[in-house]
Amino acid sequence: MKTSSLLLFFVCFLLMLQEINSQGKKGKSKYDKYLRKRKDECSLKLCAHLPKDFNENCVNQCMSLNCFNKIYAESPLEDGEYDGKRQRQFSDCMRDEFNACSKNKEQCPSYLVNYSTS
Q1: Is residue 67 part of a domain?
Q2: Which residues contact 90 (CB under 8 A, 6 or more apart)?
Q3: DSSP 48
Q4: Residue 16 lies in a domain
Q5: Global pTM?
Q6: Is residue 51 part of a domain?
């Protein structure tokens, strides 16, 4: 009896985790969708000539030249380098740019115009 109760508890727990995970994936924001799509476009088109581990500067410039210049211009990433602090600053800058564009279309860089209105 104790084994069957434990097994039942374990199955219920797994089902509950699966439900929580599936709910989290449904609620993507406009910005999250924009960010993923923009990064894919940059990686697969403009920066496709570079190996994945060496294309971060190219992708960041493509995603937002404004934010790239604010965060990375003075000291670009070295090939294969990851800088979590500057990546968060870059993401925050892009989010601010996206939000400002959503509020005032006249401030939108050309690469954001189609995304902020959809």
Answers
A1: yes
A2: 60, 64, 67, 68, 71, 72
A3: T
A4: no
A5: 0.68
A6: yes
Supply the range of the domain harboring residue 95.
30-117
Q: How far is CA 78 from CA 11, 31, 47, 55, in A?
A: 47, 28, 16, 10
What separation, in Å, do the N-terminal and C-terminal C-alpha atoms of the chain show? Answer: 56
> Which pLDDT tens digits describe the chain residue by residue (118 residues)?
566 665 555 555 556 666 665 555 555 788 888 889 999 999 999 999 999 889 999 999 999 999 999 999 999 999 889 999 999 999 999 999 988 887 877 767 776 665 544 4
Q: What is the DSSP letter of 110?
A: H
Residue 34 lies in a domain: yes
- How many of the other CB atoms lie within 10 Å of CB of 83? 15
